[in-house]
Amino acid sequence: MTGPAASPGGPSAYAAAGVDIEAGDRAVELMKGWVAKTRRPEVMSGLGGFAGLFDAAPLARMAHPVLATSTDGVGTKVAVAQAMGVHDTIGFDLVGMVVDDLVVCGAEPLFMTDYVACGRVVPERIAAIVKGIAEACAEAGCALLGGETAEHPGLLAPDDYDVAGAATGVVERDRILGPDRVRPGDVVLAMESSGLHSNGYSLVRHVLREAGWGYDRHVDELGRTVGEELLVPTRIYSRDCLALIDAVEVHAMSHVTGGGLANNLARVVPDSCTVTIERSTWSPAPVFGMVRDLGGVSEPDLEATLNQGVGMVAVLPEAGVAEAVEVLGRRGLRAWVCGSVDAASGPDQARVRLVGAHS
């Protein structure tokens, strides 16, 4: 954030227009400590430069390194954070949406950059947002290499903000996961979500609005208020998935985000195969039933919008399942076999179908 210096005896023209350079500088000072916690040995630059520098020389030790990149935002979950006045968890949602799109191809996240746009820079609020991003990057094992805070008076209301980010990872070429590896006889391993994660919030907020429910409403089935449930951070799977890839043979992975389980899993299923998912293998957390019942949302609409309790899936040979479940369990992540892969009977057969009812 740059601009003209303040005039002697008064604020600068830029400040008069609504952009507070000094507040931006204070925000940078407040966030420096959190960003430092994400530092990897390859990071060559500090906060405040024009570009982040990352030493790529260690990649030369790889046989054939391939870079992977992903970018995303959080969506309307930020409206819940703003309404609740809780700003230090939304970063987990941002990082999770980005780095877990990288790991599905087998890539290790290396570094991330963020972008925070706001109507007015409140240093403590910006620092809280970046604190969450930094803590999530540390959990994912990637460096927060840089970012930008932009103040947009007139475009955004003073207390409004949005966040976005991009990350880069690396994977050996011969270890890239994807549909070309999937075979009939493989099984689908589900990994539990922490809740709604960061998708479907336009639907959820609409349902709550129509029902007249506020975020401060306590729901016994949830064991907390609606707002507290909606702000549960997205689970970050990157290190869990990398540990799984190192332990057993994995053919493909799918990050369950917007579009739900079936639509995202279909992205890694080849035309020659079809996947059957058994709903009876798990029970979605109460928040999913709350949205369904409160809004009268049909099961197909719910499954096409929300993750229904599954945040990540792996497709792997059946022989590796027991070890895979054990590896993830030791890391505190519940996993279970939820489906199987068969040969497709024809070009019109659905790539993924869900059968049965939840237990």
UniProtKB/TrEMBL annotation:
One example GO MF annotation: phosphoribosylamine-glycine ligase activity
Pathway: Purine metabolism; IMP biosynthesis via de novo pathway; 5-amino-1-(5-phospho-D-ribosyl)imidazole from N(2)-formyl-N(1)-(5-phospho-D-ribosyl)glycinamide: step 2/2
An example Gene Ontology biological process: 'de novo' IMP biosynthetic process
Swiss-Prot/TrEMBL catalytic activity: 2-formamido-N(1)-(5-O-phospho-beta-D-ribosyl)acetamidine + ATP = 5-amino-1-(5-phospho-beta-D-ribosyl)imidazole + ADP + phosphate + H(+)
Subcellular location(s) of the protein: Cytoplasm
GO CC terms in record: cytosol
Keyword Ligase attributed: yes
Pfam families: AIRS (PF00586), AIRS_C (PF02769)
Residues annotated as transmembrane: none
Class of this enzyme: ligase
Keywords attached to this entry: ATP-binding, Cytoplasm, Ligase, Nucleotide-binding, Purine biosynthesis
Superkingdom of source: Bacteria
EC number: 6.3.3.1
All copies of domain PurM-like C-terminal, residue ranges: 183-344
Predominant place of localization: cytoplasm
Cross-referenced InterPro entries: PurM-like_C_dom, PurM-like_C_sf, PurM-like_N, PurM-like_N_sf, PurM_cligase
NCBIfam families according to UniProt: purM
Similarity comment: Belongs to the AIR synthase family.
The protein, known as: Phosphoribosylformylglycinamidine cyclo-ligase
Record gene name: purM
